[in-house]
Amino acid sequence: MRHSLIAAVAAAALAASPVLAKSPTARITMAAARAKALTVVPHGRIKSAELEREHGRLIYSFDIAVPGRTGIEEVQINALDGSLVSVQHETPAKERQEARDEARPHTK
Fold it and tell me: Is the pTM of this model over 0.85?
């Protein structure tokens, strides 16, 4: 019952999102995208994951920590076909800047 409630709340939040409400739905699951991301960064640990629209693409974005390495690897997987969109290393300074940018209110 609890999982059903969580899924319903998550679905409602996604439907209410102005970015995702107008977009096609993901054709691959978060679990499948997660598995693909972890093949790209072996031995990594996913710190965060989200479904988002970036540069006109619906993607899953994963921040993956790698043991013995500072920063994170950001892996983006296409949510429509499961293809790898990008892999980018983010230093701790870049992570902090990105967090500040996301915290700022967006104006149109």
Answer: no
